[in-house]
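Dear Dr. H.,

I hope your travels went smoothly. While you were away I took the liberty of generating a structure for the chain from your last submission, since the lab meeting agenda had it listed for discussion. I wanted you to have the full record in hand beforehand rather than looking at slides cold. The sequence, exactly as received, is reproduced here:
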Amino acid sequence: MFTYRGHIHIHSTYSDGAGTVSQISEAASREGLDYIIITDHRTLSALPEEGYREGVLVLVGSELNHRYNHILALNINQEIAFSDHQPQLALDAIQAQGGLSFLAHPFETGSPLGLGKAYPWRNWPVQRFTGIEIWNFCSEWRSRTASIWRSAYWFLFNRSKPVYGPSPECLRFWDYCCRGRRVVAIGGSDNHDLPVKIGALRFKLFPYRFSFRAINTYLLMPERLTTGFHRAKQQVYQALRQGRCFLSFDLLSSGKGFYYSAVNGTGQQAVVGEEITFNEPTRLNIISPSRRSLIRVIAGGKLVCQSGGQNLSYQVPGPGIYRVEVYYRPRLGRPRPWIYSNPIYILRKQS
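The corresponding predicted structure, in token form, is as follows:
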């Protein structure tokens, strides 16, 4: 398997972002990303600019939204009408185009400094979505800014400090959805590269390059990402559709080198996002990029195994949906959420 690091949920000058597609591509190249997906609000105007730029595969989707119920619509070619009151119509329209749909920051809570203004999902239930953006950098940062002075301190000296993993509500919802079908988890930043003016002081709140070092989505592919644009685009969206991906908070440490696989008693193998038949002994194998890891195996929303260190091997007791979380253990302080994998689906043997 080949691993590719990229970034999803970015805004450009085609909506309310501060950077052009060229500027975003250059920032992504400088941070060593393999792909990016730009998702401007309610427009596909950037679509003609898709392609390889600065060695980075640049793809274009759209964030469909008004007030609530934001959707990341990927791999579509025609703009889609959106209504806050009927988001299911948009999800069905994305599916009709062969696209992928992700519920964006569905459990966002907002900042007390902004009077709690937030953009969560309100119109439940919905169906036929590809997955969920379970971890959004800007949403989480905003939700923890309860004090101007504390926020200023974090911003100046430790911008990763307020980011402490997907919300428990979002993880519970994801685990619940996975009981019925494959629901893919991704991470994003919702980055706008916003300029800030305070008197004579001018600065960018979260520059593109900073965000590209934060929550990234790594794709696993059985073949190398091709240099031909159209085939490479298919490869990226196929990996996302199948859930062959994991997300990593790279500000703590790079997720490069994480690997999650399973093998059963007949020698059948699977990696993250794939299925395997339960046949004793069926074992999960996890490799973490750092020795400072706390590796956790989650099945059906419950912790079933955890171990400190760089490797974990776990013999599963039966069929189920098994995903992995890795916490990073700093020299000082408590372990912090770092890597979240999509599940491996261990199926019951057909009689």
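Two observations you may find useful: The radius of gyration is 20 Å. Helices lie at 21-30, 87-96, 137-143, 148-157, 168-178, 208-211, 229-242.

With kind regards,
E. W.
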